[in-house]
Amino acid sequence: MSESLKDGTILLARILLMILFLIFGWMKLTNFGATVTAMEGYGTPMPYLAAVVAVVVEFIFGIFIVLGAFTRPIAIIYALYVLGTAFIGHPFWRFSGAEMIGNEINFFKNISIIAGLLLLAVTGAGRYSLDYKWFNR
User: Membrane-spanning regions, if any (predicted)?
Assistant: First the structure.
């Protein structure tokens, strides 16, 4: 695979990996009161702070990943965040029937997203990124 194709693929992967988080991070930001209420519903400690963290990670860090800024450390932080949300937001083992199935799907979706984030932490953001511009001179 040519370097240009590899770097273009990494850029596309960064964008595709973050679409979900950018959409829902924006929704959390623009409906912040509802986000705090949802955090309370999950039984999250310090729901206001948890909502702030969710917005920062999903929306702000999502933009950073798309732009390829500080990609490796942010991808690791993101992976830990997604692992936490898998256990807090999708505890399928507590449910039965359709509710269990939906949560199980979302739990393992999060695990798959973690794999992509870890791969990004290993590969870096590629040539089409701010990381490349800032750190490869």
Answer: 9-27, 47-67, 74-93, 113-130
pTM: 0.91
CA angle 131, 70, 112 (to 5 degrees): 110
Q: Render pLDDT for 56-94 as a digit per residue (tens, 0 to 9).
A: 999 999 999 999 999 999 999 999 999 999 998 899 999
Contact 88, 44 (CB under 8 A): yes
The residue range of the domain holding 76 is 1-125
Q: Is residue 67 part of a domain?
A: yes
Is residue 14, in this structure, part of any structural domain at all?
yes
- Flag whether 136 is in a domain: no
Give the whole-angstrom CA distance, residue 102 versus residue 68.
Answer: 32
Provide the 8-state DSSP code for 42.
T
